[in-house]
Design a protein that fits this description.
By secondary structure, this protein is of the alpha/beta class. The protein folds into 3 domains: 14-30 and 41-190, Jelly Rolls, CATH 2.60.120; 203-531, Alpha-Beta Barrel (TIM Barrel), CATH 3.20.20.80; 572-674, Immunoglobulin-like (Sandwich), CATH 2.60.40. The protein is built from 12 helices and 32 strands. It has an 8-stranded parallel β-barrel with strand order 12-13-14-15-16-17-19-20, surrounded by 4 helices. The chain binds (3S,4R)-3-hydroxy-2-oxopiperidin-4-yl beta-D-xylopyranoside (XIL). Residues 240-241, 334, 411, 442, 498, 549-550, 552, 555 line the site of (3S,4R)-3-hydroxy-2-oxopiperidin-4-yl beta-D-xylopyranoside.
Length: 675
C-alpha cells in the first residue's frame, strides 16, 4: 500500500504555468520573425518527501534492509529516513514513481544523503530502476558522490524516461560497503518548457536545394517535444548508439534489436532516411569478439584471423539484412585511420588480428546483403592534413582493389575556434578526385576550446561565435552541395549531447537548439545570419544529465586536436563610431585591434549592415559590399595587422530609414568583440 504523500502533484499550477508561457509566446511573436523562447517557468514539484509526518512517505527497502523514520538527524525539520541493516551496497531506500513520471519529460531528482553517525566516509549515488516484461535496467542519475556522517550531501540530476515500463523507481545506493545512511528532502520536479517553435523555418526546407539534413538520435528524441522538433526540421536520422556492436550483439549469437528497431521504425513511419552507424569500430565492441571461447585473446595466426572474420561476416550479414532497404547508408567502418602510424592504419584489435582484411570483409558482405546501400568509411579530424591524406590513400587503395567503398564520412566534431574554413574546404576538395560521395556525419560545435574551460551557462559571446561558425561551415557545405550527399548533426538539441561527458564532464551546448529546444543563434547562422545577434540569450543551463543513451562505454579522448589554441576567443576588438550624420549620409570610423596572439597579414574585415546602409567611399583600405555584407581589405601600407596592432579605416556612407551600427564583425572570419 502506498504511504501518504506530504504534497500532492501540483497539477493546476503546472497548467497555469504552461498557459502563461503560451500567452507570452503569442504576444511576442508579432515583434520579430522568431518567437523568443519563453524561459523556464518555476519547477513543478511532482513528488516530495521530508518525512516530517513521521511516515516513510512511500520509501521502502530494495532488499532485506530496514527503512524507518529517524529523528537522530534531519536536513531541515526534525525527521529523516534511516536505512540500516544493509548487507549489500545496492540496498537502499527506493520510491516508486511509475504514476509520477511520464515518458519524454525531463525531470530533476534531488535528495540529501548523510551517513549515520560513526560511519566512515564513502560514496553514494542516485539511480532509476526501470522494469519491463520481467527484466530490469538501471540508469544512473547522479554518479558516485562523496558522503560523510558529518554533513548532508545533495545529489541532484536530471532524467528523461525514454522507454515503456511497467515499473519505475528511484533509489539511493552506495558505491561499496553497507553503511547505515540517512536520506532527506527528496524532490522530483520538472520545468514546463516552452512549446516547439512553429514560426521559424524548417531547416530541411531551408536546405532543400542543398542536401538532406540529419540528426543523431536515441529513444528520447522519439517522444514528446523532441520528436516534434526532429520531424519538423530534419530529413534523416542516425541512431547514435543503437546499431553499434555492443548494442546489437552483446554476446555471441544473441542479437538485440529493441532500440534499433524502435529508432529505424520511427524513421520509416515519419519519412526520415536512416544512416546506419556503425558496423565495425574499435570502440563499443564487446570483448568476446576478440577472444577465443576460452577467453584467450585472438592473435594474427590464421585460425584466429579466420574466426574473427567469420564473426565479422555473421555480424554484418545479420545487422544489415535485418534493415534491408530501410537503411540507405552504412558507416561500414569507423575511425580506422591513425595518422601517427607511417601507414596511417589504426592499430585496433581488428587490424592487429586481420590487417586490412576486416575492411575488405565488412564492405564485401555489406554490399552483398544490401546492394543498393551506400557504404562509407567514417572518421574524425579528417580536416587535419596528415589524417586526411592517409584516409584518402586508404580509400584510393581499397577502391583500386575493388572493395566497394562508396563514400567518406567526415565526423566534424569541431569547436568555436577550430578548424578554419580553409582547412575544412581542403578536406572536402581532397576526396573529389577519388570520385567518392562525401557526407558530414556527426557535426557539433563545442563552445569550449580546451579541456580546462567549464561554464555553468553558455556565455552569449560563445553562442554568437558558434553561430558564425555554423554560418561559415554551412556556407562551405552549400558550395560543395554537389559533393555532399547529406549533413548530419550529432544530436538534436543541447539537452542531450555526448559532449556533456566528453572529453570531460561539463555542460556543453554544441547544437542548433538549446536545452529547451528553442532555436539558438547557431540555428540562425544557417537559416538567416542577419538574425544571429537578434536571437535572445540562452535558456538557463541544466545540470548535465546521465541518460540511458549515454551510459555506453566512454569514447576515448583524442578528438580535440593538440593544435587547438588554448587562448580565449578575444581575437579582435572593433570600435565602430559614426562621427557625423546628416539626412541620407554619414561618416564613420572603424577601428580594429588585433587582440589575438597571431599577426593577420593581408587581413579581411567583415560586417553586416542592418538598415540597408551603403558604403560610398572608404579610406585606408579597399571595400566591397554585397547586400548588407561589407568586406574591407587593407591598403598596401597597413597590410599586416600584428598581434596587439590597430588599424583604423573611415568611410562615407548613405542611409535612409535608420542608421544603427552594423553587426557580425569578423577579422579573417574570426568574430570580433565590439566596443
Ligand atoms: C558517441 C555517443 O554519442 C555516446 O552516447 C556514446 O557514449 C559514445 O559514442 N564518434 C562516433 C560516435 O563515431 O559513434 C560517437 O558517439 C561520437 C564520436
Amino acid at each position: 500500500m502506498r504511504a501518504p504523500r506530504t504534497r500532492r502533484r501540483r497539477t493546476l499550477p503546472a497548467l497555469l504555468a504552461l498557459a502563461a508561457l503560451a500567452t507570452t509566446a503569442a504576444v511576442t511573436a508579432v515583434v520579430p520573425l522568431t518567437t523568443p523562447p519563453a524561459h523556464a517557468a518555476d519547477p513543478v514539484v511532482v513528488r516530495e518527501a521530508t518525512f516530517e509526518d513521521g511516515t516513510t512517505q512511500g520509501f521502502r527497502a530494495r532488499g532485506g534492509e530496514t527503512v524507518a523514520v529517524s529523528t537522530a538527524t534531519a536536513h531541515g525539520g526534525t525527521h529523516s529516513l534511516l536505512v540500516s541493516g544493509r548487507t549489500a551496497s545496492w540496498q537502499g531506500p527506493a520510491v516508486d514513481l511509475l504514476d509520477e513520471m511520464t515518458k519524454g519529460t525531463r525531470y530533476t531528482l534531488s535528495v540529501r544523503v548523510r551517513l549515520a553517525a560513526g560511519q566512515s566516509p564513502g560514496q553514494a549515488r542516485l539511480s532509476v530502476q526501470r522494469d519491463a516484461d520481467g527484466s530490469s535496467a538501471y540508469d544512473q542519475v547522479v554518479g558516485d558522490t562523496a558522503v560523510t556522517a558529518d554533513a548532508w550531501t545533495q545529489l541532484t540530476g536530471t532524467y528523461v524516461l525514454a522507454h515503456d515500463v511497467d515499473g519505475l523507481s528511484a533509489y539511493v545506493e552506495t558505491a561499496s560497503g553497507t553503511a547505515d545512511l540517512h536520506i532527506d528532502d527528496f524532490v522530483l520536479s520538472y520545468r514546463p518548457t516552452p512549446p516547439v517553435q512553429t514560426d521559424i523555418p524548417a531547416l530541411r526546407e531551408v536546405l532543400a536545394d542543398d542536401f538532406p539534413i540529419g540528426a543523431a538520435v536515441g529513444n528520447r528524441q522519439l517522444v514528446g517535444d523532441q520528436a516534434t522538433l526532429l520531424t519538423r526540421h530534419f530529413d534523416t536520422v542516425t541512431p547514435g548508439n543503437a546499431l553499434k556492436w555492443d548494442a546489437t550483439q552483446p554476446t555471441e549469437g544473441s542479437f538485440r534489436w529493441t532500440d534499433a528497431d524502435t529508432q529505424v521504425g520511427f524513421a520509416v513511419d515519419h519519412g526520415l532516411a536512416v544512416r546506419g552507424h556503425t558496423l565495425v569500430w574499435h570502440q563499443q565492441t564487446p570483448a568476446w569478439v576478440f577472444t577465443d571461447t576460452d577467453g584467450t585473446p585472438l592473435t594474427a595466426d590464421p585460425a584466429d584471423k579466420a574466426l574473427l572474420l567469420d564473426r565479422l561476416e555473421t555480424h554484418v550479414r545479420t545487422v544489415v539484412s535485418r534493415y534491408g532497404d530501410r537503411i540507405g547508408v552504412w558507416d561500414v567502418a569507423n575511425e580506422v585511420i591513425d595518422e601517427n602510424q607511417a601507414d596511417g592504419l589504426r592499430r585496433s584489435r581488428w587490424y592487429e588480428i586481420s590487417g586490412l582484411d576486416y575492411l575488405r570483409t565488412a564492405f564485401r558482405v555489406a554490399r552483398e546483403v544490401a546492394p543498393t546501400a551506400k557504404l562509407y568509411l567514417n572518421d574524425y579530424n579528417t580536416n587535419v592534413p596528415a589524417k586526411r591524406d592517409k584516409l584518402r590513400n586508404l580509400v584510393g587503395q581499397l577502391r583500386a582493389e575493388g572493395v566497394p567503398v562508396d563514400g567518406v564520412g567526415h565526423q566534424m566534431h569541431v569547436n568555436v575556434q577550430w578548424p578554419s574554413v580553409a582547412e575544412t574546404e581542403a578536406m572536402l576538395q581532397a576526396f573529389v578526385p577519388l570520385g567518392v560521395e562525401q557526407q558530414i556525419t556527426e557535426m557539433d560545435v563545442s563552445i569550449y576550446t580546451n579541456e580546462a574551460e567549464s561554464f555553468p551557462t553558455p556565455p552569449a559571446d560563445r553562442l554568437r561565435t558558434q553561430a558564425y561558425r555554423y554560418r561559415d561551415l554551412f556556407d562551405l557545405y552549400r558550395r560543395y552541395a554537389d559533393e555532399l550527399t547529406s549533413v548530419t548533426l550529432w544530436g538534436l538539441a543541447d539537452d542531450d549531447t555526448w559532449l556533456d561527458t566528453f572529453p570531460v564532464a561539463r555542460k556543453d551546448a554544441p547544437l542548433l537548439f538549446d536545452t529547451e529546444l528553442q532555436a539558438k543563434p547557431a540555428y540562425w547562422g544557417i537559416v538567416d545570419p542577419t538574425r544571429i545577434d537578434a536571437t535572445p540569450s540562452p535558456s538557463p543551463t541544466v545540470t548535465p544529465s546521465v541518460t540511458p543513451s549515454q551510459t555506453g562505454s566512454p569514447y576515448p579522448t583524442g578528438n580535440t586536436p593538440s593544435s587547438t589554441p588554448t587562448s580565449g576567443l578575444d581575437t579582435c576588438r572593433v570600435t565602430y563610431t559614426v562621427t557625423n550624420q546628416w539626412p541620407g549620409g554619414f561618416q564613420a570610423t572603424v577601428r580594429i585591434t588585433n587582440t589575438g596572439v597571431q599577426a593577420h597579414p593581408g587581413w579581411s574585415l567583415r560586417w553586416f549592415f542592418r538598415d540597408g546602409q551603403r558604403v560610398a567611399q572608404l579610406w585606408n583600405g579597399s571595400v566591397r559590399q554585397d547586400g548588407d555584407m561589407v568586406t574591407v581589405t587593407p591598403a598596401s601600407w597597413n597590410a599586416n595587422l600584428p598581434a596587439g596592432g590597430t588599424v583604423e579605416v573611415g568611410f562615407l556612407g548613405s542611409w535612409s530609414s535608420a542608421n544603427n551600427p552594423p553587426i557580425g564583425f569578423t577579422l579573417d572570419r574570426l568574430p570580433c568583440v565590439v566596443g
